[in-house]
Design brief:
Shape: globular
Order of helices and strands: EEEHEEHEHHHEHEHEE
Strand order of the largest sheet: 6-7-8-3-9-10
CATH topology: Rossmann fold
Distance between the termini: 17 Å
Number of strands: 10
CATH superfamily: P-loop containing nucleotide triphosphate hydrolases
Helix content: 25-40%
Strand content: 25-35%
CATH class: Alpha Beta
Radius of gyration: 17 Å
């Protein structure tokens, strides 16, 4: 199996008063195409910072982040924007849906930035929403008329809109009850099996982490162990 993500000795340092501290401290890891991996650790351990570096939401102080053999730390701002749009799908704990848009319009939005025609956007949005269990009139509802589980499924559909190489999910079940959390987890798990999509999920839920292909445990910005499950 070929690797799609390779992180080499990555550091992210912040200044705090007169001192510097590394939120991510010399992390190296490899993720293969089609794998479902988890990054675990306590609050403040650096796991969400690491996810942000993979998604080019922030840039590392040093080290390399390679996707499909390309070091994204060397890209200019425009190329980073293209990278996020074309290669990455994001799923957040708080859903991050646009409140005044319907479920269907939320899923169509990233495709508009990618230049797809309205008909293409409409058809793909409907197909994606149906694939995550949001069908019929529910596709026309705005987020405040949907349950947390439904909103998170819409956010997964939106993350898939531009056929990304990697889905990055930051505590995607954190605001959901146990039943809906399992449904969203199963949905993400199915992406790796049915669509060959690579999924990297940050979670503090060890039950969820134990069901992924690989676990990276991070403590004080360092990966202290990784294992296949």
């Amino acid at each position: 199996m070929s690797s799609i993500l390779k992180i080499s000795n990555v550091r992210k340092t912040f200044s705090q008063g007169d001192e510097d501290f590394s939120a991510v401290d010399g992390v190296s890891m490899v993720v293969d195409k089609g794998e479902f991996v988890s990054i675990t650790g306590k609050s403040g351990s650096g796991k969400s910072t690491l996810l942000g570096l993979i998604g080019a939401l922030d840039s590392p102080t040093s080290g390399a982040v390679e996707i499909d053999g390309q070091d994204i730390t060397k890209l200019n701002n425009q190329k980073l924007t293209n990278y996020r749009r074309e290669k990455i799908g994001f799923v957040f704990q708080n859903y991050n849906l646009v409140p005044n848009l319907s479920a269907k319009e939320n899923v169509m939005l990233p495709m508009e930035f990618a230049g797809l025609s309205r008909k293409e956007r409409l058809n793909r949005a409907e197909e994606l929403l149906e694939s995550v269990g949001i069908a019929g009139d529910k596709q026309l509802r705005k987020p405040n008329k949907m349950s947390g589980g439904e909103q998170q499924r819409v956010s997964v559909a939106r993350a898939l809109a531009n056929k990304p190489k990697i889905i990055l999910a930051d505590e995607p079940t954190g605001n959901l009850d146990s039943e809906n959390g399992k449904k969203v987890f199963s949905l993400l798990h199915g992406l790796t099996r049915n669509h060959d999509t690579t999924v990297v999920v940050v979670t503090h839920d060890l039950d969820i982490a134990g069901k992924t292909d690989k676990i990276f445990n991070i403590v004080d910005g360092k990966i202290i162990k990784s294992k296949a499950t």
